[in-house]
Each structure stands twice: as structure tokens, then as C-alpha cells.
Amino acid sequence: MTGSLPPATARRTRTLISATSQPSLPPHIKLRHDAGRGRWHVLAPERVFEPDPIAVEILKRCDGVKTVQAIAEVMAAEYDAPLADITADIIAMLQDLADKGVVRA
Q: Which of 21, 61, 80, 103 is the most exposed place for a label (fewest CB within 10 A)?
């Protein structure tokens, strides 16, 4: 037998989301609008997520350039909400999605 197998203990490293992270969707993850149902979906291999309207607005801004802080500032202004609360909520949401492999930073 030729070649080698990766060690059985090899694990994926966890992406940690912070205010300075620049989140994006990996190429194999798609944010798509289903006009027939009027809903947005995050399409991942063998998985589909249905984000709520605010999550959609956040995900649309995850371009790999804007920081979480910049996204939070825009969202706080749009929703007239405290920046600290919005930032914490966005970090928590993106961390959950990063743990599922849907967001990278």
C-alpha cells in the first residue's frame, strides 16, 4: 500500500469570531432567495438553513472585507439598538455558524 493516511487524531481547528473578524461564506456555501416561498436559505452540502430576516441582513454583509464591528455599527444604526448588544448578538450568531462550517473568518 502506498501513500499515507492522515493521523486519526487530526481535528479541524475552531474558527473564533470576534469584533475584528472579517467573516465570509466559503465558496461551497450559498445564500439564496427562494422567490416562490419568499424566504432566504443558506445552502450547504447536505444541509439547508433558514435564517431569520435579521440574520439574512448580517449574512449579506459577510463579504470577507467588513469586520464584525463594522457590520454591527450599521445594524445598530438601522435598528436603533445598543451597539454592544448588537455586536454580542452578531458574534454569537456567527460563532454558531462558524462551528457548523457555514461561516469562515
A: 80
